[in-house]
Amino acid sequence: xxxxxxxxxxxxxxxxVFRQIADHIRDAIERGVLAEGDKVPSEAxxxxxxxxxxxxIRNALQVLQGEGLTVAEHGRGVFVxxxxxxxxxxxxxxxxxxxxxxxxxxxxxxxxxxGKPSVDSIKIxxxxxxxxxxxxxxxxxxxLVVCRSRRYLINGQPVETATSYIxxxxxRGTRIAEPDSGPGGIxxxxxxxxxxxxxxVEEIRSRMPLRDEVRALKLAPGVPVFxxxxxxxxxxxxxxxxxxxxxxxxxxVLLYELPAR
Amino acid sequence: xxxxxxxxxxxxxxxxVFRQIADHIRDAIERGVLAEGDKVPSEAxxxxxxxxxxxxIRNALQVLQGEGLTVAEHGRGVFVxxxxxxxxxxxxxxxxxxxxxxxxxxxxxxxxxxGKPSVDSIKIxxxxxxxxxxxxxxxxxxxLVVCRSRRYLINGQPVETATSYIxxxxxRGTRIAEPDSGPGGIxxxxxxxxxxxxxxVEEIRSRMPLRDEVRALKLAPGVPVFxxxxxxxxxxxxxxxxxxxxxxxxxxVLLYELPAR
DNA sequence: TTGACGAACTCCTCTAGAGGAGTCATGAAT
DNA sequence: ATTCATGACTCCTCTAGAGGAGTTCGTCAA
Lengths: 261, 261
Hints:
alpha+beta; 3-stranded antiparallel β-sheet; homodimer; 261 residues; 6-stranded antiparallel β-sheet; 28% helix; DNA-binding
């Protein structure tokens, strides 16, 4: 439909035609003329409107897709991407007081927000840690660690993958090395084992997802991920767990509260 | 150069040719066969090697560029992207004890790491806040705020843009509304004005940059940004400042330390 | 009413060209 | 020694096609 008022090309501009076209559509999205979920005019319509070759149109659409503004659906059309409801992860989500109810942080949060949480593809292995993990745990890289990998879903939609690394010396033979780590999760188990947790350090990076991550999290093109690595320290200063999680950046906002001390 | 050992296409695969080619090159990068800064074989070489049309090669290279793995330089070639030195931002960087030396956080940190810090395009305006900012500051959206925009650079490379919003009622006529806010920055000024800072709340998002941000931060394609919004609260519970900053995600790692309480 | 079929529409992949423009090394002219 | 032109090489933009495959929807037969 020619309902969408797109400007004409500026032949005097030295900006490439496909960029100009991308600019027009981006403008329409940013100004709200095209709202979330709306269909962008088809390649054929845009060819017609601008009088250029199909490839030129496709290049323009490619730009927008790379910016995460649109998604193409084979056979249906190109649509303005809609953003899922955002989960806000508070910095105190692993505080002891939240653990005492006996629910894992993810389950409690999600149910609180009215979603149906589930956990997926739990895999427990015992491995030699990467140099990075070994250093964070303060162990030699030939010492073994127990790895707990899992994927979190809300209403069946994957939102996060996580892998915890606990020195095998601590975890072996305990419920931490079982698929179901019991009420309160592994932090509760660690405290029962006598490691009173003192503080966490979280390291946050953002980057484009790897191929596996795109698959595991069903990510749309142009969506970066948060890569968060949390290290848990016991009161004796010893690191007892490192947990690496990858989250879709458009499903999450991370919240931290800090003293001004 | 045929030095780079690339596999042949798998004609039985239903994976598109350009994706297979992208996979091969991505593998080479991930396995370290192609290191940072290395030149990817030219379009002509890849055409030759795979026996496909130029556009097919360009599509493959486009994929990698979108993933932030490579950058093309017109007339020179395509190169594996090299990552700038990473700045680690500690969560306590705005704590009072760091402020007492009289240096702004950014300057002190950068000099400590041996870089030459500078600040750029400082603009001070008085405006009506967006609904979001007004809500965070707990003021009506018709109340004015003083906006301090600036851009931070290290060795001339832009790394971060920031805009602070302070209720005009507080900032007007003070040094906060001057380009040079004086020793210790605006947090020091706020405390001198009697607003003893109690805590900060930081909200972190990650997304692809807008066009302006690409320009302002000289971002390579395929690099997401952190969008961090910090709200400063005084001891009386009042929000006295909101600061929004946009940072290149491959120049920063954010660090937070949290009590396990 | 239901279900199978097909036409029309969508985006996806790929080909084979063309001219343009930036970079760099070489070699000639100064 | 320096400057400058040249040509080879690079990626960039755009054209004009072709066949493929997924989606939607109306038609027609059961």
